[in-house]
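Course assignment 3, question 2. Fill in each field.
Student: A.L.
Task: Predict the tertiary structure for the chain below.
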Amino acid sequence: MPNIVSFKFNPRELKLNKFIDFYGYCAQWNQNIYVYGKNEAQKVHRLSELLSFILFSHDEECLIVIEGSGIDQTKDYITKHLAGVQTA
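Answer field:
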């Protein structure tokens, strides 16, 4: 079973508090988070990096990839708590 899930989102349409909670959820599972825009890609090591990427991204569509254990639970979390994203 793959240990990766990804989703697309528009940074202007999602609330930061949702991403703060999401980061905490992924940290519980020790999952790796990667963010991709048109001109930027990075592995997220701290919450501030994720929030900076979201706040300063001028892309209409970005991609987040999560890697690690507990991916099925993370998919459920995304579906329940991050309305407005498209699971890729």
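Instructor remarks: The helical segments are 16-28, 47-56, 71-81. The two ends are 16 Å apart (CA to CA).
Grade: pending
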